[in-house]
Design brief:
With about 120 residues, the chain is mostly helical. The chain contains 4 helices and 2 strands. A two-stranded antiparallel ribbon has the order 1-2.
């Protein structure tokens, strides 16, 4: 990706191109897969078996598989992090419920013990 800017210093209409902004490979992979869906779904490609069979060792399929692998790795990482966060919250909630239940049982036991001590006196 490049950005073109106009430089109007000294009334010169020079155009500078900045190539310092490049999209990350994951974004490029998403873009590739998005375009690939459109290409393969185009009516003239729907009846072409070479464009529909992903397992054929064509240049296009190799590019597809490389980009697909990159996207899958990214998504597995994102889903993995979110899943760990969710499971952590679930475990904390269960632990808090268990602690509350244990506290409640302990309070009930303490009350029974106090009643027995009062009866003994």
């Amino acid at each position: 990706t490049s950005i073109t800017t106009n430089n109007n210093e000294n009334n010169n209409n020079k155009t500078k191109t900045c190539t310092c902004f490049t999209s990350p490979p994951e974004a490029a992979a998403f873009e590739y897969l998005e375009r690939d869906i459109g290409v393969r779904a185009h009516p003239k490609h729907l009846i072409n078996p070479f464009s529909q069979l992903y397992w054929l060792p064509t240049k296009h399929n190799r590019e597809y598989h490389a980009n697909s692998k990159l996207v899958k790795t990214l998504m597995e990482g994102v889903i993995g992090v979110k899943l760990e966060e969710y499971l952590g919250r679930v475990q904390q909630t269960k632990k808090k419920k268990q602690e509350k239940e244990e506290d409640k049982q302990q309070q009930q036991l303490d009350g029974i013990v106090e009643e027995e001590e009062e009866e003994e006196e």
